[in-house]
Each structure stands twice: as C-alpha cells, then as structure tokens.
UniProtKB/TrEMBL annotation:
Residues annotated as domain DUF4296: 27-109
Pfam families, A to Z: DUF4296 (PF14129)
Origin species: termite gut metagenome
Name of the molecule in the record: DUF4296 domain-containing protein
Length: 195
C-alpha cells in the first residue's frame, strides 16, 4: 500500500513541471498587465487628442506620446516589444483591452455629464413615471422691456420620451410695482412649441 502512494506522489512531482510549463509566462522586460492597462489608457487618449490638432501643430503628437511614456516610466521600445508579446498572447491582450475599454467608457460618461451641465441640458432624463426634464435655471426676473421680456429654451428629446407622453408646464410668478399699469409693459404669458 505504501508503495502505491509512493508512485502517486512521484507521478505528481513529475507532472508539476509539465503543468507549470503550460502557463503563459510573461518575460521580465514585458510590461505587466496592470502597467499595460494604464499605459494603453493614456496612450489612446493621447492619440485621440493628437488627431484633433491643427496641421501646423502636428509636431506636438510625438511630444504627447513621449510624455505618456515618461509618465509611466518606460520607453517606446519597451512598449513596442510589450505589444509584440501581447499580440502573440491575444487572450491576455483581450483581457487588458477589456479593462481599458471600461475605463474609457467611464471617462466618456463623465465627459458627457460635464458637457450636459455646461450646456444646461439634461444628458438623459431619468426613467420613471414622472420626471423633471427642466435643465435651465429655476428663477428668472423679467421686465416688460424688449431686452428682458422673454425666455427662450430648447427641450431636447431623448430615449425616455415616448409617443403619447404628456409634458406639464408649471409656472409661479410674482408681479412687482403693480400700481403702474401701462399696456406696453403689461405681463402676458404665452408659449410657442416647435416640433
């Protein structure tokens, strides 16, 4: 019985190098997955910025790329050789690019949110039975004079707006200096809707 288990242990010990040899081993000079993920994230953002440069500033493209390599403490040669290794091991490269893609999508959502805030337009209305689609300021002071007697706005549609939805327009107002009544400055409220 003892001899039987001895052969089993011997077989396991002999199989370990074979099993270990099947694993993908990354050479030391190749960037790790986490390093490659961070570098590729910055690299692709930098390449996109470089594509939007005017023709007379094309020289900045390489400066931006060099900055990315400097930021990550590597060189273009190490990056290129790492890319060669990763392209030979596509399963690892797919995993790295999956993480890079997730980071880029998160960044895009943040940018979209900031643009919507800047333009005072909702990025996308919240889904639900009742939503507040108003993205403009809440209080306006209007006068009867031509330069300050109206509010113009655009309410963009989005995927949450469906056929037969209804929009409710609620206004609270207060008139100041009501003792002075002139037909040229009298308050009139109207709404024009353009589809």
């Amino acid at each position: 019985m003892k001899n039987k288990y001895g052969w089993l242990w011997c077989a396991l010990i002999l199989m370990m190098p074979i099993i270990d040899g099947c694993k993908v081993k990354r050479p030391k000079e190749v960037l790790s997955e986490s390093q490659m993920e961070k570098l590729l994230y910055d690299y692709h953002i930098t390449k996109a910025i470089g594509e939007d440069l005017p023709y007379n500033e094309n020289y900045k493209k390489q400066l931006y790329i060099n900055y990315v390599f400097q930021k990550h403490g590597t060189t273009e040669e190490v990056f290129d050789s790492s890319m060669v290794w990763y392209t030979r091991h596509t399963d690892v490269l797919v995993k790295v690019y999956g993480k890079v893609n997730k980071l880029l999508k998160n960044q895009q959502q943040d940018v979209d949110r900031l643009i919507a805030l800047h333009d005072r337009k909702p990025q996308k209305s919240a889904s639900g039975d009742s939503i507040d689609a108003w993205a403009e300021q809440r209080v306006y002071v209007l006068t009867g004079y031509p330069l300050n007697n109206k509010i113009t706005f655009s309410l963009p549609s989005d995927e949450n707006f469906k056929k037969r939805d209804s929009l409710s327009w609620e206004v609270r107002y207060r008139f100041f200096n009501s003792e002075f009544v002139d037909s040229t400055v009298i308050a009139v409220m109207s709404m024009q809707i353009v589809y």
